Write the structure tokens for this entry.
Amino acid sequence: MSCPCQNPPAAEAGKKETKPERYVSFVGLDCDAKAAELMRHIRRYIDDPAHSNAFWEYFKKKAEGGSGPRPDDLFLVHSNLNQIRELFEDKADPEALALLDRIEQECC
């Protein structure tokens, strides 16, 4: 029996794939680069003491490996989706929210 991810059904063999399928492969999604870009959006706000709080200070410490091994950016984003969404909604940042939605759909 062959793997469906390597051998599409005959009816779909001639169709061109227009959107990467995250459940088959993460190839071409560049999730690490998207997560790094999102972290830049996050840091733009939380590095300013006027916009930080105890949670974001903990987040910064965790991102730097201050409470154990340094996690990668995608793990941090995935683990804190709701808090990140709230931050961008509070700051009315549609560009960052769109990137967060894309990462959530394609990478998490």
Residues 14 and 108 are 29 Å apart (CA to CA). The radius of gyration is 18 Å.
